[in-house]
Known about the structure:
By secondary structure, the chain is mainly α. Helices cover 71% and strands 3% of the residues. The chain is built from one helix and two strands; from the N terminus they run H-E-E. Strands 1-2 form a two-stranded antiparallel sheet.
Amino acid sequence: MATVATEPSCPACSRYDFEEKLLERVLRNELVIETMLNEIRDTVKVIQEDRSKLEDSLNGLEKLKAEKEREIKDTLHDGLKNLSDSLELMARMQDEMETKVDAAIKTGKINISEAITDFALNVSMTVTNMKKENEILKDQLTIPSIYFHAHSPADLQPFLWSSCCISNCTGQCWSRL
């Protein structure tokens, strides 16, 4: 048996019609792919531009970060230097104050010692002078034998007692005629 194939008479089933449709489809797909390729290229350009801008921004930020870190480091270094200078100054001032206070205390002690010595000398001179004056007064002083006078109111004649008790502030009494 032999098989024979014949081309159908309808254009939808024709081999040329199929190839023509296939070719149209390939062309449409090629156009779509070409359009997509152009869009992808445009997108890649935009992405590359944005990437370049981002890299520039990142480099700028890194430079700014490095500069700020350097400024902070310098500021901290200066602050620590100022702090150490201040601490040294305060230590020197404290030493000077201690020296001045010690000198003032020593001077005060010397002045007080001199004042006490002068005072003691003045006191001893005053006591010596008072003793001399007291001796002079004792030599000039005579003890009276009459301690008081009493008169009679009628004739203004003095009263005479045969004895009298006189206290000399020692608790003893002595009498005198």
